[in-house]
Amino acid sequence: MAEVMAEVMAETHRHGVAATSSSGGTLLPDPTGLRTKGLCARGLRTTTAVLALLLLGACATPPAPGVALASALWADTRFAAPTQRITADDVFALSPAMQQHLAGPIASQVRFKGRQRGLVDALVREGGLQLEYDGARTRTAAEAFEARAGNCLSLVLLTAAFAKAMDLEVSYQSAWVEETFSRSGGLTIGSGHVNVTLGRRFVDDRRGGDMSTLTIDFLPPEDLRGLRTQLISEATVVAMYMNNRAAESLRQGAVDDAYWWARGATAAQPAFLPALNTLGVVYLRHGDAALAEPVFAAVLQAEAHNRVALVNGVLTLQALGRADEAAALRARLARIEPHPPYHFHDLGTQALARGELAAARALFEREIARAPYQPEAHHGLAMTLLRMGEPAQAGSALSMAMQRSGNSVERDRYAGKLGWLEQQRAAVPVPDAVPDAVMTR
Length: 441
What we know:
The chain has helices at residues 67-72, 96-113, 115-124, 141-147, 152-165, 204-207, 234-251, 255-268, 273-285, 289-302, 307-319, 323-336, 343-353, 357-370, 375-387, 391-404, 408-427, 436-439, and strands spanning 7-12, 18-21, 34-35, 131-133, 149-150, 168-176, 180-184, 187-192, 194-201, 214-217, 228-232.
């Protein structure tokens, strides 16, 4: 049976709010200041186009590519000029509205609670900014402030921008979290997670002021237990932002813009492997497999078992007509990951197309068991249950798909289907077969 392989990328998204102090205890155990519109807090993290978030230095591998190698992989003349401003300069920049907020509500909180806790309360406590989680796109600090929304990386940028303006020390952590995947625009996207720690003011080193630190994580407290993190540089955070924008541009079909964002990410932090992976995917999408091959080879040289680069390497070698090499790389991947993301979902979709409803149901349920965050699997199960004449269970599955969706557009799509189903149930019995036009995405 054929196995579908798609380009894989990596992003940073996740939500919920908690803050912990180096002096002990959870300072903000309730996420009331961050309204998530019923989203599930699991599985919403960071993006790379054929990327999975890679934590550098996790094992003894050859050094990651440096500046010289990254620049040697660029192909500026192959791409049109960008249609939008491609820069890292705006990532932490404060807008006039943010400066006013800093001088007003934040200053009021700081006066009574100190700089660290005052900033956190002004951002995430009830009565603060009332931030909402939105994984649709990655925003700069100023954009997240204006929208009062963002994914976890955007909210980290917003927090860091204010902290830097207050002369607080800022550090960033990449978290070891369960790897999750989603699909969009023909891409399979892997997600990761970051958080931010606020330290003392630099002047406090000399004055003996508050020496504690405060870590802010846009995850609910229950997801923080046992969470392992690794310090990352601000250059890596900037690369994550630009990499996310590259992945988002690819999803929209803006390949030229995606190239310039990916190029910027590799320039900001050449050792950030997901950005190289995204660059390779851009080349594939642009029809330049010959340019993609050395990019994925560089990733695999730095991390031999990088599943994302292996998947994309197979696609690249197939596009170049090198079938034997592609088969060898596929076998290498199968030894590492016999059942890739969406494996049972895709088998379930094939079974459903053949009318094998019992088999399709079992396969979708198996995908959900290992990846409950995946809305497509819940949607596939709903389609199957409808055709099996079980509308009540189908409605429950559609409801789960809606809850697991990572952005408002996807949630609205599933909500519309759920509304249609409820109307049909109220009017007439649901037939054994439901038109594909109604229930397919």
